[in-house]
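Example record for the data management plan.
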Amino acid sequence: MITVEKHLAALNDGFEINNYIVTDVDTGEVAVVDPSVPDEKLLEKLSGKNVKYVLLTHGHFDHICGAKMVKDNTGAKVVIHKEDEIMLHETDKNEFDINCQGYPFPEVDADILSEDGLELMLGNTKITVMHTPGHSMGGVCYLFKEDLVMFSGDTLFRLTAGRADLYGGNGRQELRSLAAIGELEGNYKIYPGHMEDTTLDFEREYNRYMRTRFRRK
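Corresponding structural encoding:
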């Protein structure tokens, strides 16, 4: 069993990104999902905790810029799909150059390069990596199947989906990824990279990118 705490971070223009602190209840081991900016308030929340992973859903700057801070201060292992590893270092590909001119980019090395179906253990809880390309080549969702919890990054939002016009994006792949998510068994609680939480049943019914296929008869 896990608990999930949302931590909101904001860029200079006020654009908000969801960061998450996931805790395995039995052991207290922690994973941080998409630490987006170097944020002392996030570090305060992690103080004294056994942080095992930094789970990156993809490589765009607004989801990775806090990864180095968390890794350096906790010893956590950074996990990203192998197709997005390049964006941990190349600022022309992760959109940092366009959005954060004049600021230094906090490069970080990956410790674990994931692929579809990779399983990680957070204490007694199994995490399954689901490769969901489309928003980026290496976009993933992290599935906590026993808890029916999904961290969808920028692949799936409430009533919409991630854009596919940035580096590595592909609209057809995005639709295939959304279809694969829709075919998962169970009503997952979905924690996206932006905006409010949702559920898989709700998205199957009302999301315009999914409802044609999955709407209940």
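Summary line stored alongside the record: The helical segments are 40-46, 67-74, 96-99, 171-182, 200-206, 211-214.
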